[in-house]
Automatic annotation (TrEMBL):
Keyword RNA-binding (UniProt): no
Keyword terms of this UniProt record: Methyltransferase, Transferase
Protein's name in the database: Class I SAM-dependent methyltransferase
Organism: Mycobacterium paraterrae
Domain of life: Bacteria
GO terms for biological process, alphabetical: methylation
Occurrences of domain Methyltransferase type (ranges): 44-136
Lineage, top ranks: Bacteria, Bacillati, Actinomycetota, Actinomycetes, Mycobacteriales
InterPro entries: Methyltransf_11, SAM-dependent_MTases_sf, Thiol_S-MT
Length: 217
């Protein structure tokens, strides 16, 4: 079996994402704040991008290890880390190739599970990196129903959307994947970041909190 890749390369996405991230709506920025609220201890962030989350970590967080597998985005993330309110260490790895000496109190996934090649194995890896009782915080766009769901399946299968958008797949049932990995979902809230009539396939987002169940006594 081949070893998992250490990095990924999406040159077009890496050029356009910094501009998109710099002009996020206030609604999305508030969603990021909500996703990180109340975190404490050691945190692993998967797919840090340009470090957009870093400014929103509460001071109860002791240390963040932020994984970003796209080399062109790493330097931007490291720049953002220098002004973060908590210590942030940025590493240029994939979650598939990442290992840790001790488990984390929480893992954060923001707009990343749509883009990994094998979401089931990635979420199982996240599960293994958490302490028993530790939390997964996720802010992800998810599969829609009806006409928009049909549009998502179409763009995933027959258009250049995944290639241009950093392997983004619009029609993924991310919460089903999280539950199947063994997580207990405590809280979930679905929001629309774009109007229902907007032509983009990604508009429905979910903010959720899930736990790795504590070991049985």
């Amino acid at each position: 079996m081949a070893s998992p890749a250490d990095t990924v390369h999406h040159p077009f996405f890496a050029r356009v994402w910094p501009a998109i991230a710099a002009h996020e709506t206030e609604q999305m920025r508030q969603s990021r704040r909500e996703n990180l609220a109340g975190l404490a201890g050691r945190v692993l962030e998967v797919g840090a991008g340009t470090g957009t989350n870093f400014a929103f970590y509460p001071d109860t967080v002791e240390h963040v290890v932020a994984i970003e597998p796209e080399p062109r985005l790493v330097e931007r993330a490291r720049g953002a880390a220098t002004t973060a309110p908590v210590p942030v260490e940025v590493t240029n790895r994939t979650i598939e190739s990442f290992s840790a000496d001790q488990p984390f109190d929480a893992v954060v996934c923001s707009l990343v599970l749509c883009s990994v090649a094998e979401p089931d194995s990635v979420v199982r890896q996240v599960f293994s990196l958490l302490k028993p009782g530790g939390e997964l915080r996720y802010l992800e766009h998810v599969a829609s129903r009806g006409v928009r769901g049909g549009l998502q399946r179409f763009v995933d299968a027959t258009t250049l959307w995944p290639r241009l958008a950093g392997n983004c797949h619009a029609h993924r049932d991310t919460e089903a994947t999280i539950r199947a990995a063994g997580f207990a979902v405590d809280r979930t809230l679905t929001q629309h970041a774009l109007p229902a009539w907007a032509p983009l396939p990604v508009s429905e987002f979910v903010i959720g909190r899930a736990r790795r169940p504590a070991n049985p006594i």
